[in-house]
Amino acid sequence: xxxxxxxxxxxxxxxxxxxxxxxxxxxxxxxxxxxxxxxxxxxxxxxxxxxxxxxxxxxxxxxxxxxxxxxxxxxxxxxxxxxxxxxxxxxxxxxxxxxxxxxxxxxxxxxxxxxxxxxxxxxxxxxxxxxxxxxxxxxxxxxxxxxxxxxxxxxxxxxxxxxxxxxxxxxxxxxxxxxxxxxxxxxxxxxxxxxxxxxxxxxxxxxxxxxxxxxxxxxxxxxxxxxxxxxxxxxxxxxxxxxxxxxxxxxxxxxxxxxxxxxxxxxxxxxxxxxxxxxxxxxxxxxxxxxxxxxxxxxxxxxxxxxxxxxxxxxxxxxxxxxxxxxxxxxxxxxxxxxxxxxxxxxxxxxxxxxxxxxxxxxxxxxxxxxxxxxxxxxxxxxxxxxxxxxxxxxxxxxxxxxxxxxxxxx
Length: 411
Description:
By secondary structure, this protein is mainly alpha-helical. It is built from eleven helices and five strands; from the N terminus they run ααββαααββαααααβα.
């Protein structure tokens, strides 16, 4: 009898150890894949800005330009990695491997089962890849100087944005699993490695928004042209500053996110002008405008400074709430009011930083040689500020909702 009990206890112990080992393998698979995806994302960022500047300085004589090669190798690599994880996780789900069940995966087409983040990322990558040949055909029809708002540009941009949001889900779900497991991982600046991954992914999305800001359309009202580029900056920055705070529950994260964004813009400005000059020299191709050679621009590199005051305001309010209630969270109404308040520094500082970078830096551009009526200008300024604050409120609302989802979602 004693031998039977010992044997039963030993079997249970071995079974438990096997489950722990399989769960460790599951965590390793997802987390290593997440960091590899982050490397692909950084590659895609550099390629996207390189492509924008390549169009401006060189043109587009073929589809396989150097920046396109960088972009689509990134998209293909991330997509194939996501597909591999989906297939592996489906196999593990059907094998009832610990850690792979309905609480940590989502069904896809009723047959596949995979983490939500990898599923979203895979569909985003697929959308961008489908857009590539269609965009090439569009350029063949209408030439190289196609605006960002061309349909297949937007299709590719949308796919990229979906993929990057999926990447945040990947890191956030692992952070939620780690948090709920009761583990005590090492921290840096108060954040775990996975929370740093979330911050880096959000910084990449914010830089992605900056990539196309100069391409946003100009609205004409009477004799006044209105630059709309501050709107995506406001929406993106407010949303992800709030989302980062709600996800990590750390006062100070909005300021850290701004610093991460600065590292991105600095890396872009160090890489892209050099890459264009090198590629042009190697291929012996001319610039579109003689003697107009890309150079490092300090103003673009320091564009995140326009968001610093907004970040400090968000973090300051969060710190005061932690002191008072123990939580950095505000109510939905308070969050929306924060979004409206932090919009104003972005609207004020961005044109100042970009004044030498682009002629469209001023938000309001009167028609040259045509005087405008002060009353008309006043009305347009007031309406534009209301629109900007509404966009900030929308960004704050989305940031709170997405942040709460990322905080608790384990899938």
